Amino acid sequence: MTLIAPRVTAGLPADDAQKLRYALNGSSDITVFVDGTVHRLPPTARDAVVDLLERFSRGESVTVSSVEEMLTTSKAAELAGISHTYLRNMTDRGEIPVEYRGTHRRIRLADIMAWLETQRKKAPAGPATAGGSGDDVPAGAADGS
C-alpha cells in the first residue's frame, strides 16, 4: 500500500465552525456528491466523515493520514491510544496477535481495530476522560474485566 503524507488542516474560523455545528446538530446523515453524482457511504466511511466534520465544527485542527495494514508496535499503540510498553505487554500475554519480521513485531490493523471495539463495548456509558501520562490503560484493561 502506498502511503500519502498526512495532511494537516487548520481549524475552521469560528463563524464557519458554528454553521457546521448547527448543520450537524442531531444528524449523522451525510450526502456525498462527486462530480454531481450522489454516493452513499458505507457506515464506517460515513462515521469517519461525520467525526471529521464534528471536529471541524468544534474549531479543531485535523490531520488525515493513511494507515498500513501491518503496523509497528509504536504505530499500533498510537492508534489505540495506549503506551508502546502496554501494547508490547499485551502481545507478550497473547491478548493481541503479533507477527515477527526478524526481531521486529508487527500487528495487523484489523487486530488493533477489533481490540478497540471490545474496549468500547466494555467501557461504561458516560463521558470519556481526557489527559493522562501516555501509559494509560484503557477502561477495564487494568482490572482484567
Summarize the entry for a quick read.
This protein is an alpha+beta fold. The chain is 39% helix and 16% strand.
Mean pLDDT: 81
What is the terminal separation in angstroms? 36 Å
Question: Tally of extended strands?
Answer: 7
Radius of gyration: 18 Å
* Widest beta sheet: strand line-up: 5-7-6
Discrete helix count: 5
Order of helices and strands: EHEEHEEHHEEH
- Helix content bin: 25-40%
Shape, principal axes of CA atoms? elongated
Characterize the largest beta sheet: strand count, sense, and whether it forms a barrel: 3 strands, antiparallel
Low-confidence stretches: 129-137, 139-145
How would you classify the helix and strand content by structural class? alpha+beta
Approximately how much beta-strand content do the residues carry?
Answer: 15-25%
Written description of the protein model:
The protein has a 3-stranded antiparallel sheet with strand order 5-7-6. The protein has about 140 residues and is of the alpha+beta class. The chain is elongated and about 50 Å long. Helix content is about 40%, strand content about 15%. Strand 6 (about 100) and strand 7 (about 105-110) form a beta hairpin.
What keywords describe this structure?
two-stranded antiparallel sheet, elongated, single chain, disordered C terminus, 145 residues, alpha+beta, three-stranded antiparallel beta sheet, 7 strands
Topology:
Blueprint: E1 7-9, H1 14-24, E2 32-34, E3 37-39, H2 43-57, E4 62-64, E5 70-72, H3 73-80, H4 84-92, E6 99-101, E7 104-108, H5 109-122
Antiparallel strand pairs: 1-4, 2-3, 5-7, 6-7
